[in-house]
Amino acid sequence: xxxxxTSSGDRRGGGKEKSETTEQFEKTASRxxxxxxxxxxxxxxxxxxxxxxxxxxxxxxxxxLAGQYDLEVIDVYQQPTLxxxxxxxxxxxxxxxxxxxxxxxxxxxxxxxKVLIGLDIRTR
Length: 124
Description:
Elements: H1 18-32, E1 37-43, H2 48-64, E2 69-75, H3 80-85, E3 93-98, E4 103-106, H4 112-118
Parallel strand pairs: 1-2
Antiparallel strand pairs: 1-3, 3-4
């Protein structure tokens, strides 16, 4: 009689290394994002530093990711629970959700080179 599956006690390691399964997960998650960059920028009100971060990031995105990004700007004063959930400790903070790996960048996004590296658009 042929077995249709294995019991939980009979599972054997498939020989896959952890890095292979991580790589598969990251590829799957990237496909779910549709190839788009999913970005969240947390700002503190309408301060000049917040306005500068928004302007700098929009310029970078339009220049390097035109049509390939979703940017959500979140004011930590208006939505503090979102900031708390993401463990935001400073503003402005940019979170790159997709493509993986997730990254956090803090500051006004004025150092274009560092932002491009943080978004994995440019290598070091």
